[in-house]
């Protein structure tokens, strides 16, 4: 059976229509993100070494961490989903170094209650877009 010109045209239009339908930009909606930054203080003073700020939303099962500098400032390096987070703050364990290379200073004096999300009482409310920095002043 010979292929007719009409059949070829209909097949071509069907292929072009299928391709065009796939290019409509209909995908999942973009994920909302926010920023999380701030400062950790120990009794009003910079910690003098690196701390780890841990945040977790038990409802969404999402969280992350941010490291402070010696001055206590931190910024989450990955985008954060808008939500309410429980926060804990721990001393960052220094990475192993080469022999003869001094290790970074470890922070001491973080009260034990701030090391657990269950007892710290610290929270972070992240909204979509830029958020104001948060200050956590850890006192005994």
Short description:
With 140 residues, this protein is an alpha+beta fold. It is 16% helix and 29% strand.
Description:
With 140 residues, the protein is α+β, with helices and mostly antiparallel strands. It has a domain of 91 residues: Immunoglobulin-like. It contains two helices and seven strands; from the N terminus they run H-E-E-E-E-E-H-E-E. The protein has a four-stranded antiparallel beta sheet. A hairpin with a 4-residue loop joins strand 2 and strand 3. The protein is globular and about 55 Å long.
Radius of gyration (Å): 26 Å
Would you count the extended β strands for me? 7
- State the end-to-end CA separation: 90 Å
Main beta-sheet strand count, sense and barrel state = 4 strands, antiparallel
The CATH topology label of the domain at 37-93 and 105-138 is Immunoglobulin-like
Which regions are unreliable across 5 or more consecutive residues at pLDDT < 50? 5-21
CATH architecture of the domain at 37-93 and 105-138: Sandwich
Count of separate DSSP helical elements: 2
Rough outline? globular
CATH class of the domain at 37-93 and 105-138: Mainly Beta
Beta strand %? 25-35%
